[in-house]
Design a protein that fits this description.
By secondary structure, the protein is α+β, with helices and mostly antiparallel strands. It is 34% helix and 18% strand. A hairpin with a 4-residue loop joins strand 1 and strand 2. The model has no long low-confidence stretch (mean pLDDT 94).
Length: 102
């Protein structure tokens, strides 16, 4: 997968807003990787801020919808992982400023 396509995929994921924090999942640092195979299967490897997050289903559904806007993506699989664990250190500078985190 070329860099431009990966950038497009990550850009689509920036449209997925965490309803609790009001910031996209990329800037929060929830997305660990995105890949697209030759058959058009997009695999999004991501985590959540907590294991018991009640929004897991909502966020994974929103990821699938966001990926469906990319013509090269035929199907999307969301892999929720817990290693490495999410910490606020994964957040972008933008997200930390928006949430008042230092």
């Amino acid at each position: 997968m070329d860099a431009e396509l990966k950038e497009n995929l990550m850009g689509a994921l920036e449209q997925v807003i965490d309803p609790e924090l009001g910031i996209d999942i990329v800037n929060i640092g929830l997305v660990y990787d995105v890949d697209l195979d030759e058959d058009g299967l997009c695999t999004v490897t991501m985590t959540l801020t907590t294991m018991g997050c009640p929004l897991a289903g909502v966020l994974t559904d929103q990821v699938r919808v966001a990926m469906s806007d990319i013509p090269e993506v035929k199907d999307t699989k969301v892999d929720l992982v817990w290693t490495p664990a999410w910490t606020k250190d994964r957040m972008s500078r933008y997200a930390k400023i928006a949430l008042g985190i230092r």
